[in-house]
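Troubleshooting log. The previous structure file for this entry was overwritten by mistake, so regenerating from the original sequence record. Sequence copied from the archived sheet and checked twice against the printout by T.R.
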Amino acid sequence: DFTPGRSYFIITRQENIIVDGGPGQTRRTVCNDSIQVYEGWNLIATPFNFPLHKESLSLINSNSIVTLRSYEGGWNITDVMEPWKGYALFVTSDNSNDDMYLVVIPRAAPGRASKVTADLGFEPGDWAVQISGRVGQIHDLENWAGVLQNAQPGFDNFELAEPPVIGQYLKISFSHPEWDLPTDEFSTDFRPADVSEQVWQFDVNTNQAYADVRLSFDFLGDFPANAEVHLIDETLQSAHNLRANFVYSFKSGKDGAEKKLKLIVGNHQFAATQAGDIGLVPEQFELLQNFPNPFNPETSIRYNLPEASRVSIVIYDLLGRRVRTLIDSQQKETGYFTARWNGHDDLGGQVATGVYIYQLKTSSKSISRKMILLK
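Regenerated output below.
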């Protein structure tokens, strides 16, 4: 049954499907309406046929802040409920064991819905890193790690739960099972301002195969001017200086990606200690074995530069003939890098199954490795 005030996902692989919900119901607009909600995620809709601002919504028997999320290729925070559209709302109980309700005041919003960001309520000394991710047309843009003057240790109303995944997805989340809430995954992780140097662990998950995952990091508020900011990828044993480049990309595999990353904000000694055995700067010139190997259709080639240099990466067949130039004498700073090859030559043609040589050259050094393409 379709219930007034509830929203639903209908997912189909067929085109031109018509959904007939039957006759509607008339809702009185001279008095408030209410929707029963439950701990955790609720899919809701306005019972009225005009837009409502979230200021017209309030919760009974819950201490949660009303945060509306709409879905358009990913979850977005919004401030207006449009008629005939669905929204997700996360609710926690006030421990009274009484039923919880969302009260809806029938007061039309002056404007249409607009995408907004969470109201972080920054005060002097507050700062955050916003983490946004994209995979093609899919996104997860609204995730924050930061320090707030009014934040409390553990869970408080500054924390936002990570919405459930739908269909093709990208999810960035902070895991906190110790908070003992209806979900373990959150879009935010805010800490009290008594400690300026911080480390956050977060997860990136997608079910998109062989896709480019792009993460970007924005520094907000009174971000520590002299702090170093590093992203540690323990799987790839690499560090990424977000001060030098605020974008980090990687390739998902045939089953998508499940990646754990570490965000470090602090002075150099603190960052180096938190990075552990992974140097913030590579200690030596390296060309690593491509992965996967053998491969089809694409493989990643990782290399490390302990100093800035011009870089070339060229692929040859076993007869020494040039097949593909991946990087042509580009200037690179010190750091950890990845190049990708999709098995095509410089003319765009698919190369044959076989063994190939990939060669990395810098201003002063050269190193080569073998890889295998299987069809």
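Helices lie at 268-275. Archived copy saved in two places this time.
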